[in-house]
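batch_manifest entry 22 of 60
target: Transmembrane protein 115
source organism: Oedothorax gibbosus
requested by: lab member K.T.
priority: normal
notes from requester: please return tokens only, no post-processing; we will run our own comparison against the previous entry in this batch. if the run fails, retry once and flag.
--- input ---
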Amino acid sequence: MEMLTFFALVNTSVAFLSVMFYILVFTITSDPRYLFSVQIHGLAGYLAAVSVAVKQIMPDHILLSLPCGKIRNRNVPLIVLMLSILLWPLGVVRSTYPVMFASGLLTAWIYLRFYQHHSNGTVGDMAEGFTFASFFPNVLQPPLIVLSNVIFGFFVYVKLCKKPLRKYNIASSTSVTLTIPGSESNDAERRRQIALRALSERLNKVEQVSWPATRGEGKSSDKSKSTEIAMPLLDHHQSSSSASESLVSQSEHSVDVERISRDNQSAII
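--- output ---
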């Protein structure tokens, strides 16, 4: 039911915002083609909404590793929006695609940020990792944070948005727990995903380190075995050579004895 509500809300809002955008362009340019020739159709807005929902659930999941950096889920909405704007003058995509994508991105973020009801009774997602400035690079975030805070303060003033409530749980005199409604379950899911990814990276590093070590241990054991085998062979060779030398010395001694006995006999004769 929640997905059907999200689908209907996003597509209806995308159609309304796109029509209002082209009426504004017609008011500025007075070109009737923007009223009668532009056809608004397709699921570009819903694709943008899905990318925002994925960013909310798994913002730091790596999709592609490049030499210049890593593309994560949190970078997908802005990258697709910029590509659609760049491809529109080339005729690759229709002029309505960037408008519908931007409308779907904004609508989905507003709904998920402030109005979605969760099963635990909270409303919205006020986590720091799901701010409007988090869609942009870190360099552009400080001025966008100031601008978005001003706009949010205005919406709170005109009663379009509610200021997030903070609950303080003073368990003891030394610890204070701060709870922001709408951020507990989503933050817990994000922390679980980050912990699982860090654990898998550590396991991969341990496997890469232990594999060469086992190969080195195998080589050292083989070398020790070869030395152990070579030492008995060397001892056996030394013992055989000493035995042969003793036999030769004994044969020479017997020859000398026979020669002396023959000389004595000849002397007697």
